[in-house]
Amino acid sequence: MMKKNIRNIDINYIQYGSEQGKDIVLLHGWGQNIEMMEPLGNNFQDYHITILDFPGFGESSEPDTSLTIYDYVEILEELLESLH
Hints:
84 residues; 2 helices; 4 strands; 27% strand
């Protein structure tokens, strides 16, 4: 597992599968984490899989303030852009 700092929040994520495969990003539900989504991603080994812990979940750090759904979208977008 790796971490990237996005908006002063350490976002925990993993990437695996084929480097040349199409990208799939798996997002967990409320109260879940990477561990819940990883078995699903294991079925797509021909793809490049990215799974993250949203802020405040799993191994990602707790945000300093409450986040809106729009904040989560922007954090996800920034993370994916930083990972190319």
